[in-house]
Write a structure and sequence with these properties.
mainly alpha, Amino acid/polyamine transporter I, single chain, globular, binds tryptophan
């Protein structure tokens, strides 16, 4: 039986090792960069509420399922799914889940690393005191100043490529070192430090004149802003994209749906309580995202920045904050270093499933597997690097459309996406929820009852509730949100 084996790749030294690694995977750019900018672009409170509902009703039970599959399968997601399917007498086609995870991991890492590179590029800027000028500028010039720093960076493909390369190299070094060496130790002080810095930033945000406006933006629920984003005086068109984005973000932020959490689960000691570790990871991840929002939006409103400016939102607001707060150079440097580290601990979980699988084929050592994966993600990363400069105007989704139809494309239309936008949409909003759906269905319908009960140790009632959610609520929820997004209910 597969459950008797220990993993070929080693094990966490304790339950805490898993919690640190899984939290390290979950907490990253998704919380601090993506969550605020998506909230800002989707109107605020309604997005946050839908996000929280998705976390609670769909993602939390799937997180438990994904850990459970890994813990039973004890290998890479591809082999875990194949072995478990075989063990319970089902088609080995279930391994498709592992394969889609491999693909999603590469696609995500390719852009994730570029964004992490932005954070890394901000470290020397903060250290050299570039942001200090903000404090001496008239209010009206602040926005222009901080935007110029950002625009300068992304307009230069060579700079982006350089920082992207450094991040990929960092990932390779860490993943090649194996799962215990270094990773656990680094995370032990990093996570608390990141949290502390967010609290310091929150202190600054509370001192800005529009703190409460930021709070209201995040928590006042106005569904019209989410459902009818492009209203003009004359027309209002319903859109399900905002809800889809919230669900996609929940999967993305919790690292679900591609086998990252599954492969970390494979390294769990057998005595671990799945329910307990899943709860801790979900709560930490959610708290960090909400904190990031509470830091960002007050600064946005206090300085006349736009909440819906997209991927540059966090960089521009934090620049203002560090420019104005006392000891801002110091805190800024530290913050961007921590953000890079948080991103790297997430990035490594994006290739670990593939690395583990390559090793299991017997043809790769950990080092060669890691280098191979890093190289592939690095090359794919060019698409994202160029999306912000030389290919800024390229819209891949319009390539199959007629010339006339292309002329009719408006800014903000579904097909109005750069390569970066396409990669982000395809992975977060399509592949991860689909992966999660398959994980839910497989676990709740195809695994033996006794295994589930034994692994979860939830008590009869708790177990039945969990299975009910996994069997019906999560799959139907994901399905409805998909149908809604393609406009079936409008
Ligand atoms: N969760 C990470 C973040 O919020 C990103 C990430 C790491 C991820 N591993 C993943 C997303 C696996 C999806 C799947 O930044």
């Amino acid at each position: 039986m597969s459950a008797e084996n220990t993993s070929l790749h080693g094990e966490w030294s304790s339950q805490l090792g898993f919690i640190l690694a899984a939290t390290g995977s979950a907490v990253g750019l998704g919380n601090i960069w993506k969550f605020p900018f998506l909230t800002g672009s989707n109107g605020g409170g309604a997005f946050v509420i839908v996000y929280l509902l998705c976390v609670l009703l769909i993602c939390m039970p799937i997180m438990m399922a994904e850990i459970l599959l890994g813990k039973r399968g004890r290998s890479s997601p591809i082999n875990t799914m194949r072995n478990l399917a075989r063990e319970y007498g089902h088609s080995t086609a279930w391994q498709i889940l592992g394969w889609s995870g491999v693909l999603a991991g590469f696609l995500i890492l390719s852009y994730y690393s570029v964004i992490a590179g932005w954070a890394l590029a901000y470290v020397p800027q903060a250290a050299m005191g570039t942001f200090e000028a903000v404090a001496h500028l008239p209010q009206a010039e602040v926005v222009g100043f901080v935007s110029a720093i950002f625009d300068n960076l992304v307009a230069d493909p060579w700079k982006l490529l350089f920082w992207h390369t450094v991040i990929i190299l960092l990932c390779i070094v860490i993943v090649a070192g194996g799962i215990q060496g270094g990773l656990e130790r680094a995370l032990r002080f990093m996570m608390p430090a990141l949290f502390l810095l967010l609290l310091i930033l929150l202190g600054y945000a509370m001192s800005t004149p529009k703190f409460m406006e930021g709070v209201h933006f995040m928590f006042d629920v106005d569904f019209d802003k989410l459902f009818y984003p492009n209203c003009t005086e004359f027309s209002c068109e319903f859109s399900g994209q905002g809800i889809l984005a919230a669900m996609g973000q929940a999967f993305f932020s919790l690292s679900l749906g591609m086998g990252a959490i599954m492969v970390y689960g494979a390294y769990l000691p057998k005595t671990t309580s799945i329910t307990q570790v899943a709860t801790i990871v979900v709560i930490s991840d959610t708290v960090v995202a909400l904190l990031a929002g509470l830091v960002i939006f007050p600064i946005v409103f206090s300085h006349g920045l736009q909440p819906d400016q997209g991927p540059n939102l966090v960089f521009n607001t934090l620049t203002v904050a560090f420019g104005k707060m006392s000891a801002g150079n110091f805190f800024g440097t530290l913050f961007f270093i921590l953000l890079v580290l948080a991103a790297v601990t997430s990035a490594i979980s994006l290739i670990e499933p593939t690395v583990a699988w390559l090793i299991e084929t017997g043809r790769f050592s950990r080092i060669s597997a890691t280098i191979f994966c890093g190289l592939a993600a690095w090359l794919l990363g060019f698409l994202t690097v160029f999306s912000f400069n030389i290919w800024k105007e390229v819209r891949p989704l319009t390539w199959l459309m007629s010339e006339q139809a292309v002329l009719d494309v408006q800014p903000g239309d579904f097909v109005d996406k750069t390569w970066f936008d396409v990669l982000d949409f395809l992975t977060s909003n399509v592949m991860l929820p689909l992966g999660g759906l398959l994980i839910a269905l497989f676990t709740a319908w195809f695994l033996g009852e006794s295994v589930l009960k034994q692994e979860l140790a939830l008590g009869n009632r708790g177990y039945r509730f969990w299975r009910w959610v996994l069997r019906y609520v999560a799959p139907i929820g994901v399905g409805l949100i998909f149908l809604n997004a393609i406009g079936l209910f409008s």
